[in-house]
C-alpha cells in the first residue's frame, strides 16, 4: 500500500509530462508562442526540478520524508490549477516554475521512502521495477487522456486534471505512509545548491537561446560563462566543504558514475524524441490531439510492459543485461524514426517510437538500483535525488539541444521545414542510445560488489583535504 501511494506521485508527474508535450501545438496557437517558447514550457519545469531535488532529498532525510513529500504534493496541485488559469505565456512559465518546486519534493522522497521500506535487495529491485512500470502506465494513459481533454476542453484542462489526482495522493499519504528520517542526516549545503542551479540553468539557457540571438551573442556567451564558472566553483566547493550536497568521492565508483551518465543520456534521448514526435504528428502530419495521442500510446505501453520485467531481471542476474537492451533499442528506434520521417512512413514512425520507448522501459530500474545501492542507507534521499536529477538534466538538455537544432534549421512555418530539420535531431537521439550501450557494456552484474567500501568511505566522513584524498 505504501508502494502504491508513493507511485501515485510518479503517475501524476509522468502523465503531466506526456500531456504537456501533446498540448504544445495548442499552447503555441492560443498564446502565440514560438518554438523557443515551447522549449521553455518543457525545460523550465525540468530545470526547476533538477535544480532542487538534491536539496529536497537532503531536507527530507533531515526533517521527515513524508512531511516534505506532502508539502510537494500540495504545491504541485496548486501550481497545476494556476497553470490552467494562466492568461499569457509569461504567467504560464512562472506557474510551471512553481509546479517544478512542488515536483522536486515528490520523486526523490517517494524513492527514499520505498528504499527504507524494502530493505532486501531483491525486493527493492522488484519495487523499483513496479515503480518504473507505473511510469509506463502514466505514459500510456497520458496521450489518451490528454488528447481527449485538449480536443474537448482545451489545453488548460491538461493541468487541471492534476488537481483531483494530487488531492487524492495527499490524503492517501496522510493515512498510509509512515514518517521516516535518516539516522544521521546530512546538513543542508545552500552554496552547493545555488551553484548547481546556476550550472544547469546557464547551460540550458545558452543552448536554447543561441539559435534565436546567435551563438556568439552577448546573452548566450554570458549564460555559457555563468555555467562554466558555476561548474568550476561547484566542484571546488563540494571538495572543500565538510558537508557537501553530493559527496564527489562517490563518483570514483564506476557503477555509480555510470548510472548517473546513463540517466542523462537515456532521458535526454527519450524526452527529446517525445518533444519532436508531438510536433511532427500534429504540425506536420495534421493529426488532431486524439489521433496524435493514439500514435504515442504504444510508447507508454512498451514502457509499462518492460519496466516491471526489468526489475525481475535485475533481481535474478543484475543490471547489465537490461542496460544493454536499453542502448540497442534507443539507438535503433531513433534511427528507424529518422528514416521514417524522411519517407513520411507512419507505420515506421510507430515502430521506431515503440522501440525507443521499450529501451526507455529497460533503463530506469537498473539506473535507480545501481545508484541507490551504491550509497549508504542514511543517504537514501540524496541517492534517489541524484538519480532523478540526472534524468531531469538529461531531459532538459535533450529538449534544449534538439529544439535548438530544429529552430536553427527551420525556416518559415514548422510544417514546411520540420522534416529536413528534424533528421539530424533523430540521429543525435540515436547517438544517445549508442552512448548508453557503450557505458552499459562496462557495467557488470557485480556492479554493486563494492558497496561495503563505499559505505566505509562515506561513514568515515570527509578527510581534512578532499583534494589529497582524490590524488
The arrangement of helices and strands along the chain is HHHHHHHHHHHHHHHHHHH
> Could you name the CATH topology of the largest domain?
Growth Hormone, Chain: A
CATH homologous superfamily caption of the largest domain: MFS general substrate transporter like domains
Largest sheet: none
Please report the distance between the alpha carbons of the first and last residues.
47 Å
The number of helical runs is: 19
Strand content: under 5%
Name the shape in a single word: globular
Total beta-strand segments: 0
Rg of Cα set: 21 Å
Poorly predicted sequence stretches spanning 5 or more consecutive residues: 444-471
State the CATH class of the largest domain: Mainly Alpha
What does the model show?
This protein is globular. The chain is an all-alpha fold. It contains 19 helices and no strands. The protein has two domains: 2-176 and 245-462, MFS general substrate transporter like domains (Growth Hormone, Chain: A, Up-down Bundle), CATH 1.20.1250; 189-244. It has helices at residues 2-22, 24-31, 35-63, 65-84, 89-103, 107-117, 121-152, 157-160, 162-176, 190-213, 218-240, 254-284, 289-317, 320-343, 346-373, 380-409, 414-440, 451-459, 466-470. Residues 444-471 have low confidence and may be disordered.
Amino acid at each position: 500500500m505504501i508502494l502504491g501511494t508513493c507511485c501515485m506521485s510518479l503517475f501524476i508527474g509522468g502523465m503531466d509530462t506526456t500531456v504537456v508535450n501533446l498540448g504544445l501545438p495548442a499552447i503555441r496557437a492560443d498564446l502565440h508562442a514560438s518554438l523557443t517558447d515551447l522549449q521553455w514550457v518543457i525545460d523550465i519545469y525540468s530545470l526547476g526540478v533538477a535544480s532542487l531535488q538534491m536539496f529536497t532529498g537532503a531536507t527530507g532525510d533531515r526533517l521527515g520524508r513524508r512531511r516534505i513529500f506532502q508539502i510537494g504534493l500540495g504545491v504541485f496541485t496548486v501550481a497545476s490549477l494556476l497553470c490552467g488559469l494562466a492568461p499569457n505565456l509569461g504567467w504560464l512559465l512562472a506557474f510551471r516554475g512553481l509546479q517544478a518546486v512542488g515536483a522536486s519534493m515528490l520523486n526523490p522522497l517517494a524513492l527514499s521512502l520505498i528504499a527504507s521500506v524494502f530493505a532486501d535487495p531483491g525486493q527493492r529491485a522488484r519495487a523499483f521495477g513496479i515503480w518504473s512500470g507505473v511510469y509506463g502506465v502514466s505514459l500510456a494513459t497520458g496521450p489518451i487522456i490528454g488528447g481527449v481533454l485538449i480536443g474537448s476542453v482545451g489545453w488548460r484542462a491538461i493541468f487541471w486534471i492534476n488537481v483531483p489526482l494530487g488531492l487524492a495522493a495527499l490524503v492517501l499519504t496522510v493515512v498510509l505512509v509512515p514518517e521516516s528520517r535518516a539516522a544521521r542526516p546530512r546538513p543542508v549545503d545552500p552554496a552547493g545548491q545555488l551553484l548547481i542551479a546556476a550550472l544547469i540553468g546557464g547551460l540550458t539557457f545558452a543552448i536554447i537561446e543561441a539559435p534565436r540571438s546567435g551563438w556568439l551573442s552577448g546573452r548566450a556567451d554570458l549564460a555559457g560563462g555563468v555555467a562554466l564558472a558555476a561548474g568550476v566553483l561547484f566542484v571546488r566547493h563540494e571538495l572543500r566543504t565538510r558537508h557537501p550536497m553530493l559527496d564527489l568521492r562517490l563518483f570514483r565508483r564506476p557503477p555509480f558514475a555510470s548510472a548517473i551518465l546513463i540517466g542523462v543520456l537515456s532521458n535526454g534521448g527519450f524526452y527529446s524524441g517525445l518533444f519532436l514526435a508531438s510536433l511532427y504528428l500534429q504540425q506536420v502530419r495534421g493529426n488532431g490531439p486524439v489521433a496524435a495521442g493514439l500514435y504515442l500510446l504504444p510508447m507508454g505501453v512498451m514502457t509499462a510492459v518492460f519496466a516491471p520485467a526489468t526489475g525481475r531481471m535485475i533481481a535474478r542476474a543484475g543490471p547489465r543485461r537490461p542496460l544493454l537492451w536499453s542502448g540497442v533499442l534507443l539507438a535503433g528506434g531513433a534511427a528507424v524514426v529518422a528514416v521514417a520521417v524522411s519517407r513520411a512512413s507512419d507505420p515506421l514512425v510507430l515502430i521506431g517510437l515503440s522501440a525507443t520507448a521499450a529501451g526507455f522501459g529497460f533503463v530506469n530500474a537498473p539506473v535507480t538500483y545501481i545508484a541507490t545501492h551504491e550509497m549508504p542507507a542514511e543517504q537514501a534521499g540524496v541517492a534517489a535525488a541524484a538519480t532523478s536529477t540526472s534524468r531531469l538534466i538529461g531531459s532538459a538538455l535533450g529538449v534544449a539541444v534538439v529544439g535548438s537544432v530544429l529552430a536553427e534549421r527551420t525556416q518559415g512555418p514548422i510544417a514546411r521545414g520540420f522534416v529536413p530539420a528534424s533528421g539530424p535531431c533523430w540521429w543525435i537521439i540515436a547517438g544517445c542510445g549508442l552512448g548508453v550501450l557503450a557505458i552499459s557494456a562496462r557495467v557488470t552484474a557485480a556492479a554493486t560488489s563494492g558497496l561495503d567500501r563505499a559505505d566505509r568511505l562515506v561513514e568515515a566522513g570527509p578527510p581534512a583535504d578532499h583534494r589529497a584524498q582524490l590524488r
